[in-house]
Amino acid sequence: MDKDRKVYKKVSRVTGVADRDRKTHRKTEQGKILPERDKRPDSDKKKDKTPGRKDYGPDRKTDYGRCPVMKKCGGCRYVGMSYGEQLKIKQKTVEKLLGGYGKMDKIIGMEQPEHYRNKVHAVFDFQKGRGIISGIYKEGTHDVVPVEECLLEDRKADQIIGSVRELAGSFKIKAYDEDTGYGLLRHVLIRVGHATGQIMVVLVLGSPILPSKNNFVKALCKLHPEITTIVLNVNNKKTSMVLGDKEHVLYGKGYIEDVLCGRTFRISSKSFYQVNAVQTEKLYGKAAEYACLTGKETVIDAYCGIGTIGLAVAGHVKKVIGVELNQSAVRDAVANAKINGIKNADFYQNDAGRFMIQLAETKETVDVVFMDPPRSGSTEEFMDALVMLAPDRVVYISCNPETLARDLGYLAKKSRYRAVRITPVDMFPFTDNIETICLLTKEKG
Ligand code: SAH
Hints:
The protein is 31% helix and 24% strand. It is of the alpha/beta class and 445 residues long. The strands form 3 sheets. An 8-stranded mixed β-sheet has the order 1-16-17-15-14-11-12-13, sandwiched between helices.
């Protein structure tokens, strides 16, 4: 096993929140970056406030200097590099891996590539002389590195994490010790609705009883009135997964809502939701463009999460069929169809490959397949069924260009599907993760 895989395997154990992008998860949810203090003269700083200056957008120069936890975290591989340079590297990487498969468009970057993460995680620990600390796991270990603020994460979320830590101290709540199982507070997970500003705080505890729970909730909400819900998740297992199975709502509805592509989406703690809402709208816009919808199509939204892609295009198609493995996400997807008054979308909880085979056996006519698998990519089972269903267009969204290349290679060998358009979208600035969207159609002949 090579070194990288070893680190990946080891660290991937500490995740466990629904997140298809384990690598990003490792590098960003655990990867917190502190920008160095701005050392430029005040006169220069003032200029930065002018909107439309060229230091916004992909060409601007960013000098974040060295992050104090950069080496320990490993999240922001590109910190200290201008955003334009980051995009160039990503473009080159994708071209190298996928250029042979189809026409490559220019990467879609962000206008303001910082603090984009709407899902933020911190782990708690106890340090002699310091008391309770919150932060990240040092890369490849279970040692906690204290962190206050991160270049990638939503600022409000980082402030809330600080408040949870301080309140834990004043309420005499002990940090959970992974080795002994002693203590209570293990992790906190924050989710922020980019458009709605709704905030969910998930307190992950080693046992179900939070002493003075009402006062704790009251105190936290008083410090941050923008919190709309607080969930207590119980994880009493000797595991590195963040979330346990059981949870109950301490305050609010138990989920947040966000607005994306004009639709409202309910998001529960265990459901996947794209971490960068600004870029997600661009990604889904591209997906709709590639799908060329006329209103007559039956479309499949495979690996659909909470139904975002299918529901975003539901008004432009005859029927949406969504499939997703995670039960909580499917529940959210069904609720999301209802919230938005969408009646032409059905969601199924199943393995996407198995579901596609069953669908192919029913001889259902499918015109477009959106597929958005996890980092590991799709499966041969899924792709064989896809070929049997024979949709006119396949829109493949991928957070791992290596598995995308593998899958495009498989389809090229086994079928007439060929990539005709490929666009990288930068969903994860400052990290080396790359999102790519690809349109496949059947080659004639
Ligand atoms: N399209 C959604 C979700 C993409 S993330 C969005 O844009 O938000 C990938 C999703 O695939 C996750 O929700 C994950 O739970 C789901 N998944 C992982 N393995 C799966 C499988 N074998 N079958 C179906 N869904 C799966």
